[in-house]
DNA sequence: AATATTATTTAGACAAATCTAAATAAATAA
DNA sequence: TTATTTATTTAGATTTGTCTAAATAATATT
């Protein structure tokens, strides 16, 4: 199956939005891809034709088994390139996403597998997301919640779900990265903001918006 | 200047065909790009508009200074990726061209420069072609002639000008790669074929066609 | 349940990059 | 120099991926 870049991007975003088995709506996908709902409808027809998604008018989209397979390949390439950029080229955490968005579209299994080997077959990427292996299998992510939901006091950052440059740069500035341990000092119910403290840093208050995108597990 | 992949490919091929200062013809460019002359004409208008080429109807194409600069960036990326694939991922000589054709279109100066550094700032690629530096400067290739023109008897392979998989695989099978030393045993005037011998291999006869694409210098 | 709102799809248009077929210019041969 | 061949360009069509505006379906509200 030969996919265009546009098709790959749609498949990848459907995969991303389809947590569990929920259907993905036209609007959500358009928002995720920074495009228009009408364009998504067009693409949905094409991807249905190619049997990569299940789609009925007005009923939303889910990946077919083949679509999921394709998505996992793309995700694999994306996350391996992120590892390469961080581990080998010394890019920082927040810079690699956009570059990986481009590199992931070089569709060569041989290249992908050689790259993985070269990197020591890593199983998580620099954001803490698991990397599918050549067959699409990936380690089940360890249980984690978003920072605003966490009930433990001492936590470790395991992933960041919003990969926008703005958020990642913000976290970087605050000394927060994967594996960073932090302590929750207070919850402010008024605006759901949270006061946290990272070792050797002054305590900071972060908005609910930000907290939602920081995944943590108790430490 | 933001170039599309199609535009980059045209610029690169014009650069390749424009040896010295000769103009590049519509037909030659169409052949090189495996497209049609009419398509080249269309693209020429666009590239002229963007001031990357000099072009007058029926008078052929040359790169403008900005066009040459763009071409050198693309060539730099291409050759660095080839180094990466061969040196780091253990790809063989003849496999890397097609992959580099894709990777070269990731236009990030930071990535390119980091990659170069990671590779130890190489100055020639696995085919023996010089790699432009970040400013577009590259080592003047050492004097070389094609194998069919060479007058010395003992030669070393410095480059291969035709990067087709077929030729590279052929050379690989015959044990000929960059740096291989060979000896010319005979010229056959009848069909301009050449008998050559590589150390520890039986002598072989190669056609003029092949010989033209093997660049050598006396050793 | 009827109405209003929101989500989705359709219809028709557009830009990029390509093509074929026809027209025209340039080069070559008679 | 005229005729023929070759090279190039133009005109108009096609495909892919996108868009806007209008129409329709689904959902929410009164």
Automatic annotation (TrEMBL), chains A, B:
Domain of life: Bacteria
Keyword Transcription: yes
Molecular function via GO: DNA binding; DNA-binding transcription factor activity; protein dimerization activity; transition metal ion binding
InterPro entries assigned to the protein according to its UniProt record, in alphabetical order: DtxR_MntR_Metal-Reg, Fe-transptr_FeoA-like, Fe_dep_repressor, Fe_dep_repressor_sf, FeoA_core_dom, HTH_DTXR, Iron_dep_repressor, WH-like_DNA-bd_sf
Pfam family for this entry, one: Fe_dep_repress
Keyword terms of this UniProt record: DNA-binding, Transcription, Transcription regulation
HTH dtxR-type domain segment(s): 1-64
PROSITE patterns referenced in this protein's UniProt entry, alphabetically: HTH_DTXR
Family listed: Belongs to the DtxR/MntR family.
Protein role: In the presence of manganese, represses expression of mntH and mntS. Up-regulates expression of mntP.
Protein name, per record: Transcriptional regulator MntR
Organism in which the protein naturally occurs: Chitinophaga arvensicola
Species classification: Bacteria, Pseudomonadati, Bacteroidota, Chitinophagia, Chitinophagales
């Amino acid at each position: 199956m030969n996919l265009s870049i546009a098709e790959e991007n749609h498949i990848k975003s459907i995969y991303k939005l389809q947590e569990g088995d929920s259907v993905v709506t036209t609007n959500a996908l358009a928002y995720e891809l920074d495009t228009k709902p009408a364009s998504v409808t067009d693409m949905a027809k094409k991807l249905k034709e190619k049997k990569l998604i299940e789609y009925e008018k007005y009923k939303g989209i889910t990946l077919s088994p083949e679509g999921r397979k394709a998505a996992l390949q793309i995700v694999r390439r994306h996350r391996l390139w992120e590892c390469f950029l961080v581990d080998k080229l010394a890019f920082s955490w927040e810079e690699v996403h956009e570059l990986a968005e481009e590199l992931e579209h070089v569709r060569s299994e041989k290249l992908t597998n050689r790259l993985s080997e070269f990197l020591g077959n890593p199983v998580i990427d620099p954001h803490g997301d698991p990397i599918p292996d050549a067959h699409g299998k990936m380690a089940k992510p360890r249980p984690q919640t978003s920072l605003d939901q966490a009930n433990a006091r001492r936590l470790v950052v395991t992933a960041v779900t919003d990969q926008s440059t703005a958020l990642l740069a913000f976290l970087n500035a605050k000394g927060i990265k994967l594996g960073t341990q932090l302590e929750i000092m207070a919850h402010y119910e008024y605006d759901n903001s949270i006061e946290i403290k990272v070792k050797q840093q002054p305590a900071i208050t972060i908005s609910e918006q930000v907290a939602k995108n920081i995944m943590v597990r108790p430490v």
